[in-house]
Amino acid sequence: ESVLMRKNIYGVFVAGGSGTRMGTERPKQFLDLGGRPILQQTILKFLYAVPEMRVVVVLPADHMADWKKMCADLHFDVPQLLVEGGITRFHSVRNALEKIPDGAVVMIHDGVRPLIHEQTIQRLLDECAGERNVIPVCPVTDTLKSLKPGPGGTLSESSDPAPRRAGLYGAQTPQIFLSEQLKAAYTLGYDESFTDDASVARAKEIPLTYVPGERYNIKITTPEDLEVARLLFSA
Fold first, then answer.
1. How far apart are CA 91 and CA 186, in angstroms?
2. What percent of the chain is helix, strand and coil (3-state, nearest 5)?
3. pLDDT of residue 163
4. Could you give the C-alpha distances from 182 to 48, 83, 128, in angstroms and in order?
5. CA distances from 197 to 84, 106, 123, 179 (A)
6. Rounded to whole angstroms, how far apart are CA atoms 136 and 125?
7. What is the enclosing helix (H) or strand (E) of 45?
8. pLDDT of 8 strictly over 90
9. For residues 50 and 9, is the Cβ–Cβ distance under 8 A?
10. Alpha-carbon distance 57 to 39, whole Å?
11. pLDDT exceeding 70 applies to what percent of the chain?
12. For 58-97, how does the pLDDT look when each residue is reduced to its tens digit (9 = 90+)?
């Protein structure tokens, strides 16, 4: 029996944002994808992969009632613990971690990454079996430029050298941790460099294992992302 089998597994779905970049009335996590809100599709992917997972959903306080109504209307009868989001992602995750016991495995996932495959979720969890904290990453494939804002909405070369692509990776979610280690990291004060859970853990010198993520595990933040996601989802 692996260590993992003996631990409770929690999935924290971070959907605390209001989604200004989408330009829609509704927050992006509530927009339709295949007949359900994006956030429901994301949670379902994880439950198919890990049926025993306990679900924790972080939402803006003023959208809790909307979410409950969507769950009732669409018969989304998933037992879930609802947590109020904070002013940043860091504060939202910290609020969720208060509900999670030590000695568990916690997967922190962006609520607007619904395209991840079940096999990817299972593979990432398998990587944790040796008591490791696991972060999925993908290599950066674009040529990178260092630019600054120019006149009339254009961009111009900055004096910084162009970043080298070799050795650069984009971090994805779910980021999976031993709960007591992540909770220890979140006792740190907030810093602007904390853009994901790995950056918080690193600041606390918690060991991390980086593994290949999944190319299509995109985060839906713009209308173009949503178009791509709808095509991939229906395929």
1. 9
2. 35, 20, 40
3. 86
4. 25, 17, 14
5. 18, 11, 19, 12
6. 11
7. helix 38-49
8. yes
9. yes
10. 9
11. 95
12. 999 999 999 999 999 999 999 999 999 999 999 999 999 9
Would you state the structure tokens that stand for residue 227, as one six-digit string?
Answer: 């178009």
Supply the pLDDT for residue 16.
Answer: 79
Residue 120 CB partners (closer than 8 Å, separation 6+): 136, 213, 214, 217
Of 73, 8, 67, which is closest to residue 35 (Cα–Cα)? 73
Task: Tell me the per-residue pLDDT of 34-54, one tens digit each, with 9 for 90 and over.
Answer: 999 999 999 999 999 999 999
* Three-state DSSP class for residue 179: helix
H runs (alpha helix) in 99-178: 118-127
Helices (H), 52-168: 64-73, 89-97, 118-127
Percentage of the chain with pLDDT > 90?
Answer: 82
pLDDT of residue 1: 46
**Exposed, middle or buried: residue 82 (CB in 10 Å: 0-12, 13-18, 19+)?**
middle
Q: What is the pLDDT of residues 126-168, one digit of tens each?
A: 998 878 999 999 999 999 999 999 888 899 989 888 888 888 9
Six-digit token pair at 209?
Answer: 């294992």
Token digits of residue 93: 């995750």
